[in-house]
Write a structure and sequence with these properties.
The protein has about 650 residues and is α+β, with helices and mostly antiparallel strands. Helices cover about 35% and strands about 20% of the residues. The strands form 5 sheets. It has an 8-stranded antiparallel β-sheet, with no helix packed on it. It has a 5-stranded antiparallel β-sheet with strand order 3-4-5-7-8, with no helix packed on it. Strands 9-15-20-19 form a 4-stranded antiparallel β-sheet, with no helix packed on it. Helix 7 runs parallel beside helix 9. The longest helix has 23 residues. The protein is elongated and about 85 Å long.
Length: about 650
């Protein structure tokens, strides 16, 4: 892929970013967005989103804006807790989003006044960056001018609000907003650059920050040469972002961060194309098309995903973004159609909500299909069965027929990925629209979550994944811990039957001196007429010491689920709402234990998950130096 910055230096950009053409583009975009927003108010598919908007607006009239006090800001430094400050920060953004959209839909004077108060309130914040991202020790760049993900998002949000409502707002308010965006973001990023680390990052930070800042400069900067130089700089950051993806288009951070990073990349790319009359189109490469397909490739069913790294299995995919990506790929998506509500997004992101309203196209979504897919650079395997009777529901409500889909996913890769979890060889079993054996996803973000020793946190540790503990030792972090693919066979017979093999060498993941070899093999088969599915997991261990003696060893096979298991002699069952999985094992050599673990999810909500452990020790295997441990899983439509 050619570099965006090299293809579009400032000397070329200045010719397609001329002042008159920018004014025309702004006016046209304002008309299109305004017209589309007003139409959606009466369209049933947007009813839930508009209900959320009305609810937030009503709350704004009944209660004062929550205050972002300095004491709340310093709480992160003092305790490591992020949530108290961020809850207030995002509620304030959510109020502004709702007020603006309501004012565009019905531009009554009192609504405009509410928007002006909200804008001025956000203009008065100590900093637009989150406390976790502010470097107080930075003596060159004060907190007010430190540009992180959320300062960039705020700049974009305010710039797009001025685009939509600027002519109806008090001129002094508009001047204040423009001035704050200029001082807090455009100046430190472009006019007097401080060279932030995200500018050369190969992950979501580069895309979100570059796109937020890029849209702000497109909409607000008047000087053509300076605007061209700024866009050239942001294209360089987007080059770094795209370099973080390999040819398979896989996102190691997971589907949630794919939505975040690649979503903002699309938002900026679309506006840049419009403002240059199609001259600068950065969406045409094959690599971009591969990245665009990622969420669909890791989708299991019912909006449930293979959610390795810091993603949720129930990510809220923006309907507007997916509609745009479907158009980019020239075909309907197999993802389910659903427009998320404003309150479903804890961050209340303006960019997603706005484009859900102005971009969504229900006809861009299609039916489910059978998939056996492997992302070779990422090392993720996905197998999803097909249901002949699957009926796509525009409402997004699950149907009985959809429960027939069975899916399996397994993970290779290495243990030094962005938002890394030590999870090589981990797997997910899915049936009836839920992950029966699951990945816990992201934990509650605190200072410790991103500090040395993070491997001890349940969500990150291999102890929180369906992988073994060997001689009491869990997987190590680092790129040296790699899953080596020994065998892969992506078999598929017809639309409802698959026979797939996947074998990994995971020896390097475990810093166990006496471990000579550990391989994990998966064999997945979907039965005729999609009546069920079977998975066999075979772990092979070889132990030896430098003097050739055989020392005692033990292995603990762990399985993670949010469903409380039912146990009996030689079997375990996890019964979901529409499907169940049964594990059969050799009770003569494996010892069973089930632990209920009190935990907290990424949003700080308590829940319980269950760790099922099967213990295997050398004294139960006649002191052998090598052993195979086989686990036989069967998934059916209902309990057995």
């Amino acid at each position: 892929m050619s570099l965006l910055k090299e293809a579009w230096p400032a000397s070329r950009l200045v010719t397609v970013l001329a002042g008159d053409s920018q004014d025309v583009a702004r006016q046209q975009l304002r008309r299109e967005w305004t017209k589309r927003l007003r139409v959606t108010v009466s369209e049933p598919i947007y009813a839930g989103l508009w209900k959320d908007i009305e609810r937030v607006c009503e709350n704004n009239r009944e209660t004062p804006w929550p205050t972002l006090s300095l004491s709340l800001f310093w709480q992160f430094a003092n305790t490591g807790e992020r949530k108290p400050y961020e809850d207030v920060y995002f509620e304030r953004r959510g109020r502004l989003v709702a007020l603006v959209l309501a004012a565009v839909a019905e531009p009554e004077s009192w609504r405009i006044k509410e928007v002006e108060r909200g804008l001025l309130d956000i203009c008065g914040e100590y900093t637009w960056a989150l406390p976790a991202h502010v470097r107080e020790e930075d003596t060159v760049t004060p907190p007010r001018q430190q540009v992180d993900l959320f300062a960039s998002e705020t700049a974009q949000t305010l710039a797009e609000i001025i685009l939509l409502l600027g002519e109806q707002l008090n001129s002094h308010v508009v001047a204040q907003v423009r001035g704050e965006v200029e001082r807090r973001v455009l100046e430190p990023v472009f006019w007097e650059p401080r060279h932030f680390q995200w500018e050369t990052a190969d992950h979501n930070w580069a895309a979100v920050c570059a796109s937020g800042c890029g849209i702000a400069v497109l909409l607000l900067a008047e000087d053509d040469p300076r605007k061209a130089a700024a866009i050239e700089k942001m294209l360089g950051s987007l080059d770094c972002f795209l370099a973080g993806y390999r040819e398979d288009g896989g996102c190691p951070e997971g589907v949630g961060y794919w939505v975040y990073g690649f979503g903002y990349f699309i938002y900026f790319a679309d506006m840049l194309r419009e403002f240059t009359k199609g001259a600068v189109d950065i969406l045409t490469s094959e690599k971009v098309r591969q990245i665009a397909a990622f969420a669909e490739r890791v989708h299991l069913s019912e909006g449930i995903f293979a959610n390795y790294s810091d993603s949720s299995e129930t990510e809220r995919l923006p309907a507007g973004l997916i509609s745009r990506l479907n158009a980019l790929q020239g075909r309907p998506s197999t993802l389910p159609f659903r427009i998320p509500g404003l309150l479903e997004d804890p961050c209340r992101r303006w960019a997603h909500v706005l484009r859900n309203l102005v971009w969504t196209n229900p006809l861009a979504f299609g039916n489910s299909e059978a998939v056996v897919d492997y992302l070779p650079q990422l090392g993720w395997l996905m197998c999803r069965s097909h249901n002949h009777n699957h009926n796509h529901a525009i409402s997004g409500t699950p149907t009985v027929e959809q429960a027939a889909i069975f899916a399996f996913s397994a993970k290779g890769g290495h243990n030094d990925e962005p938002h890394n979890h030590n999870d090589l060889g981990h797997f997910i079993l899915h049936g009836g629209g839920e992950n029966l054996l699951c990945d816990l996803g992201a934990g509650l973000y605190t200072k410790a979550y991103f500090s040395p020793g993070r491997e001890s946190i349940t969500n990150i540790s291999s102890g929180g994944h369906s992988v073994p503990v060997i001689n009491g030792i869990m997987q190590q972090s680092g790129v040296e811990a790699q899953a080596v693919v020994l065998d892969i066979a992506l078999g598929e017979q017809g639309a409802a039957q698959m026979d797939t093999r996947f074998k990994l060498d995971l020896t390097s993941a475990y810093p166990v001196e006496e471990l000579a070899l550990f391989t994990r093999s998966f064999a997945w088969n979907v039965l005729e007429r999609n009546e069920g599915a079977k998975l066999t997991v075979t772990d092979h261990f070889e132990f030896e010491t430098s003097d050739g003696s055989i020392q005692p060893w033990d292995v603990e096979e762990n399985l993670i689920s949010r469903i409380q298991p039912y146990t009996g002699t030689g079997f375990v069952e996890w019964k979901g709402a529409s499907a169940a999985v049964r594990l059969d094992y050799d009770a003569s050599v494996l010892r069973l234990e089930v632990e209920a673990v009190q935990h907290m999810d990424h949003d700080g909500v308590p829940f319980v998950f269950y760790k099922t452990s099967l213990g295997l020790a050398s004294d139960r295997c006649g002191g052998a130096a090598s052993v195979d441990c086989e686990l036989f899983f069967t998934i059916n439509h209902s309990s057995f």
